[in-house]
């Protein structure tokens, strides 16, 4: 048996997310962990993963982790340095396979809040807003969400619906006019990985990370979720992945702080 | 013929919209087609074109390729009650709110510094009501407001925002698309009163080249009623004509040309210099308190006469040379905000 690998939470999230990405597909990534996961996928199982940035970077070969989705690293040795109109139009037309988002709050239908905590009129705890998230969540074929889960973040109803998941359930996206066959695909947290039931469009647990109990996952959610009959244990990060993360992707520790 | 049915309407304030014919008249009256010398200083450009209450938009990407010389000058001239397009607004908006210049904003992305965390000054202002959010939208939502403005049409149909609270607080509307019969979002045109865009090089008439991603600047340059182009370097008109495919912004959209080497500092200028993370980090730390905000502006804006003096105070040639090395991957970046623990 292989010795137990030690890893940090960001390393676990990055590796888990990276494995969901597929070779020869396109991914629209945001700042931070999504970038790291996409870069890791390129350096492991998906060398031809096509990375897209909202400010115009298309297919870069990033030398180091960018600190912004518009930073010059996002178009270093890219196939094109284009524009937001170009990228958003390509997304709206269906060229984006995976979208990668974070969330301050998430509901069981995968609806995301990144705008504010509390009632809108009070503006008590203001967050940055949609940015490109509403666009990614509207246009991507499959949206992946990476976030920490706890009872305040996994909520029955988000305080502000910034970015569409499955809205109120089956058929709601299409009824609202959003592109067909799009929506949330996976939610990755520090405890496990969730998918969406194709019939109810609600989240269900598909794997728990090593050392996490089902009770831990339930205790850290304000809504009830179903559990897969074939509940798995997430494959933990390998030594090779962790080495690539630190040596090649984020050597100075911008996100994966040492 | 059946009447267009509005299915839903956002209740956000409609900023900077004009009837297309009214805007054509404005263009006819104010936009010169003459190849004239438009060079001026940031002081002159801001004094002449930025009025209190103006609806402004900053080119680049919030902390990438930003016209910082114009932004500092607006602060120095104590412009007030400006409304800003919060289209990925980062450091630009943060210091404009912190200094009291901007007090209203339409938000796509605001009050954050991407990986560096949230903006203490911007958040404090918005959470205490000193700065008001007048509408919400998304990055593509804003981008396409500029596109509609540039095209001279009243709106652009889009498939984002639909079904969300972002829509409910936007200035967009949903109608039934007369072609597909599906609901479609209409984002209204935006015509900022003043936009300022930093470029790599430009001639004295305003024909400007941008290296790397253009972000929203192709559309923003063309929808803004007044456009201030700042540039790292003024080049001869012959150089523009030798490679005309490189012109991102042609002269007839441009009202002022400001030459300012390192004019994006402390923000990044692709291929030339990296973010000055020490400077931005110091601002993020100082702006945790109002005293710190005052100290920052006293030192870097009110305490100096112009942007060149600011560059000296901010570290001068030694600092600029280091940022060039980091941008060109010859030295690793460091940042004060990286040292904090999770």
Class of chain B in CATH? Alpha Beta
What value does the average pLDDT of chain B take? Answer: 96
The number of strands of chain B is 14
The coarse overall form of chain B would be: globular
CATH superfamily heading of chain B: Glutaconate Coenzyme A-transferase
CATH architecture grouping of chain A:
3-Layer(aba) Sandwich
Q: Structural class of the secondary structure composition of chain B?
A: alpha/beta
What level of helicity do the residues of chain A show? 10-25%
Q: Please count the beta strands of chain A (DSSP E, at least 2 residues each).
A: 14
Largest sheet of chain A: 8 strands, mixed
Distance between the termini of chain A: 28 Å
Biggest chain pair interface: A-B, 62 and 70 residues
Describe this structure in words.
The complex is a heterodimer of chains A (258) and B (342). Chain A is an alpha/beta fold. Chain A has one domain (9-249): Glutaconate Coenzyme A-transferase (3-Layer(aba) Sandwich). Helix content of chain A is 24%, strand content 20%. Chain A contains seven helices and 14 strands. Chain A has helices at 9-20, 33-43, 84-93, 133-139, 172-176, 214-219, 239-249; strands spanning 26-28, 50-52, 57-58, 80-81, 98-101, 105-106, 112-113, 116-117, 125-126, 142-146, 184-188, 192-196, 203-208, 226-233. In chain A, strands 2-1-5-10-11-12-13-14 form an eight-stranded mixed beta sheet, sandwiched between helices. A two-stranded antiparallel ribbon of chain A has the order 3-4. In chain A, helix 2 (33-43) links the parallel strand 1 (26-28) and strand 2 (50-52). In chain A, helix 1 (9-20) crosses helix 2 (33-43) and helix 2 (33-43) packs across helix 7 (239-249). The relative contact order of chain A is 0.16. The mean pLDDT of chain A is 95. Helices cover 34% and strands 18% of the residues of chain B. In chain B, helix 2 (42-49) crosses helix 3 and helix 6 (139-151) crosses helix 8. Chain B has helices at 20-30, 42-49, 68-76, 91-98, 120-127, 139-151, 165-168, 217-223, 237-242, 277-286, 290-302, 307-313, 316-327; strands at 6-9, 55-58, 82-86, 102-107, 132-136, 155-158, 173-176, 183-188, 194-199, 201-202, 208-209, 226-231, 247-249, 256-259. In chain B, a hairpin with a 5-residue loop joins strand 10 and strand 11 (208-209). In chain B, the strands form three sheets. Chain B has a seven-stranded parallel beta sheet, sandwiched between helices. Chain B has a four-stranded antiparallel beta sheet with strand order 1-7-8-6. Chain B has 342 residues and is of the alpha/beta class. Chain B has one domain: Glutaconate Coenzyme A-transferase (3-Layer(aba) Sandwich), CATH 3.40.1080.10. The model of chain B has no long low-confidence stretch (mean pLDDT 96). The chains are: A alpha/beta (258), B alpha/beta (342).
């Amino acid at each position: 048996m292989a010795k137990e690998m030690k890893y940090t939470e960001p390393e676990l999230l990055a590796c888990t997310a990276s494995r969901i990405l597929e070779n020869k597909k396109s991914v629209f990534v945001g700042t931070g962990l999504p970038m790291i996961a996409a870069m890791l996928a390129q350096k492991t199982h998906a060398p031809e993963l096509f990375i897209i940035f909202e400010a115009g970077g298309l297919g870069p070969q990033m030398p180091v982790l960018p600190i912004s989705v518009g930073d010059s690293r996002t178009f270093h040795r890219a196939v094109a340095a284009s524009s937001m109109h170009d990228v958003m139009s390509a997304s709206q037309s269906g060229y984006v396979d995976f979208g990668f988002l974070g969330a301050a709050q998430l509901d069981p239908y995968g609806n995301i809040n990144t705008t504010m905590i509390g009632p809108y009129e009070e503006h008590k705890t203001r967050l940055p807003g949609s940015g490109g998230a509403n666009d990614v969540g509207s246009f991507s074929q499959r949206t992946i969400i990476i976030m920490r889960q706890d009872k305040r973040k996994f909520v029955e109803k988000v305080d502000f619906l910034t970015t569409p998941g499955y809205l109120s359930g089956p058929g709601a996206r299409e009824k609202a006019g959003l592109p067909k066959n799009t929506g949330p695909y996976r939610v990755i947290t520090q405890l496990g990985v969730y998918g969406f039931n194709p019939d109810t469009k609600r989240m269900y647990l598909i794997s728990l990370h090593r050392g996490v109990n089902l009770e831990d996952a339930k205790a850290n959610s304000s809504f009830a979720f179903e559990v897969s009959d074939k509940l798995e244990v997430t494959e933990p990060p390998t030594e090779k992945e962790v080495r690539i993360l630190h040596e090649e992707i984020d050597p100075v520790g911008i996100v994966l702080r040492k | 013929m059946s009447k267009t049915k509005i299915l839903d309407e956002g209740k956000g304030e409609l900023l900077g919209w004009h009837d297309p014919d009214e805007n054509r008249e404005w263009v006819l009256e104010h936009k010169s087609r003459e190849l004239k010398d438009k060079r001026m200083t940031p002081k002159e450009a801001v004094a002449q074109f930025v009025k209190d209450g103006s609806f402004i938009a900053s080119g680049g990407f919030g902390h990438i390729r930003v016209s910082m010389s114009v932004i500092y000058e607006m602060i120095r001239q104590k412009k007030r009650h400006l409304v800003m397009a919060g289209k990925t607004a980062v450091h630009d908006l943060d210091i404009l709110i912190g200094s009291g210049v901007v007090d209203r904003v339409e938000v796509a992305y605001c009050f954050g510094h991407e990986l560096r965390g949230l903006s203490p000054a911007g958040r404090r202002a918005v959470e205490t009501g000193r700065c008001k959010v007048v509408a919400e939208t998304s990055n593509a939502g804003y981008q396409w407001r500029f596109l509609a403005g540039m095209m001279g049409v009243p709106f652009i149909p889009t498939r984002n925002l639909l079904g969300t609270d972002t829509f409910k607080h936007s200035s967009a509307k949903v109608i039934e698309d007369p072609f597909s019969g599906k609901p479609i979002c209409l984002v209204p045109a935006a015509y900022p009163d003043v936009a300022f865009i930093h470029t790599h090089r430009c001639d004295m008439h305003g024909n400007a080249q941008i290296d790397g991603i253009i972000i929203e600047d192709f559309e923003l340059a063309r929808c803004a009623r007044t456009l201030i182009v700042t540039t790292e370097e003024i080049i001869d008109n012959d150089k523009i004509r030798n490679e005309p495919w490189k012109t991102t912004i042609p002269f007839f959209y441009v009202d002022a040309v400001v030459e300012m080497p390192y004019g994006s500092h402390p923000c990044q200028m692709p291929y030339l210099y990296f973010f000055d993370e020490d400077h931005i980090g110091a601002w993020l730390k100082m702006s945790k308190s109002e005293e710190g905000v005052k100290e920052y502006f006293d030192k870097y804006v009110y305490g100096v006469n112009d942007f060149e003096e600011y560059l000296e105070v901010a570290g001068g040639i030694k600092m600029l040379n280091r940022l060039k090395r980091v941008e060109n991957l010859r030295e690793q970046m460091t940042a004060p905000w990286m040292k904090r623990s999770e």
